[in-house]
Amino acid sequence: MIVRILGEGQFKVDDAATGELNALDAKLEAAVNAGDEKAFRSAMSALVSRIRVLGTPLPADVLEPSALILPDAEATMDNVREMLSGGGLIPG
Amino acid sequence: MSVMKRVSLIFKAKANKALDRYEDPRETLDYSYQRQLEMLTQVRRGVADVATSRKRVELQMNSLQQQQAKLEGQAKQALGAGRDDLARDALTRKSSLQTQLTDLQTQYQSLQADEEKLTSASQRLQSRVEAFRTQKETIKATYTAAEAQSRIGEAVSGISEEMGDVGMAVQRAQDKTAQMQARAGAIDELMASGALDDVTGTPHDDIQAELDRMGGGHDVDLELARMKGELSQGEAPREIEGSADGGAAGQPAQAARPAPSADQPQAGDGS
């Protein structure tokens, strides 16, 4: 599957890693719902570093939408909430 | 639902809007391509803005560093002249500039990172736009509107996601740059208004004024000492010469007088 980290580009990740990424994503979601900034930061950095390790960058001439998109590594919890609530801020 | 899934759905919804825009999907290709070119221009402008902002921060850092070097020089000069109070004053100002300098350095690094990110995002978008253009021409040349539908969907969704990503990055960088420009502008204004002069030392540099005054005073003292020296040297030789003259004049006279008297008995004795 293809995973994008916003601001970094797309990565091809083996489907076998889906379970692991989902588990990390669940932690991220729980942190956002709980408004727990500390848990949010650690879940974000765990996800970002796992995707970077597990994935290989997609060639530049491939035009495929991603199955999963992770907010950029420096995004704050407020940024993520804003993104999830509206998405109106996405240009293009 | 998972965060990553939700974000990807938001991006897909955006792409679908673009796809639903035209009845003939081939028009969607042209429309999307137009938007891609606009986005490329926008990203390049974003990179240029960040670079300008970075250079401005760099100039300010340089001038603060020069100011610090000047204050350090003044501190040394003051210490050399035995004015510890002035030296302390100069070093205190130097350290207050350090706070601003550290802040600017953080800004500089952040802008540099943004610039690198945007530059590579711009390159990624550039290659994808190129790939899209090739696919677009192939699809338009090969397929009827009905056949093109499914092939267009993926290409448009893929590039639309890329544009959304890059667009957000540009937006973020521009917001940040605007904030930094405002802060940089505030520092420039402070410098221009003279409010920082007491700290940065120009042109109403009281430490330098004090050092100059001391320097001037030193010269005056030196000149006074020199003049005193000249005066005392001028008088002293005259006194010495006076007594020496008296002695020298008296001695030959005294020595001349006994000589004839000594000669006379000899001459008398001889005759």
Entry keywords:
heterodimer; A: 92 residues; alpha+beta; B: 271 residues; mainly alpha; 7 helices; rod-shaped; disordered C terminus
What does this structure look like?
The complex is a heterodimer of chains A (92) and B (271). Chain A is globular, with a radius of gyration of 13 Å. The two termini of chain A are 23 Å apart. In chain A, 48% of the residues lie in helices and 14% in strands. The longest helix of chain A has 18 residues, at 37-54. Chain A is an alpha+beta fold. Chain A has a four-stranded mixed sheet, with helices on one face. By secondary structure, chain B is mostly helical. Chain B has helices spanning 3-20, 25-80, 84-142, 145-193, 197-200, 206-256, 258-270. Chain A binds chain B through residues 3-4, 6-7, 9, 21-22, 25-26, 28-29, 32, 47, 60-72, 80, 83-84, 87, 89-92, and chain B through 1-8, 10-15, 35, 39, 117, 121, 123-124, 127-128, 130-132, 135, 154-155, 157-171.
Summarize the structure.
The complex is a heterodimer of chains A (about 90) and B (about 270). Chain A has about 90 residues and is of the alpha+beta class.
Overall body shape of chain B: rod-shaped
Q: Helical stretch count of chain A?
A: 3
Main sheet specs of chain B: none
Q: Please give the oligomerization state of what you see.
A: heterodimer
Number of strands of chain B: 0
**First-last Cα distance of chain B:** 155 Å
Work out the radius of gyration of chain A.
Answer: 13 Å
Structural class of chain B: mainly alpha
> What Rg of chain B, in angstroms, do the CA atoms define?
45 Å
Taking the sheet with the most strands of chain A, its summary is:
4 strands, mixed
Give me the secondary-structure topology.
The complex is a heterodimer of chains A (92) and B (271).
Chain A lengths: L1 E4 L3 E4 L5 H17 L2 H18 L1 E2 L10 E3 L6 H9 L7
Chain B lengths: L2 H18 L4 H56 L3 H59 L2 H49 L3 H4 L5 H51 L1 H13 L1
Helix pairs in contact in B: 1-4, 2-3, 2-4, 3-4
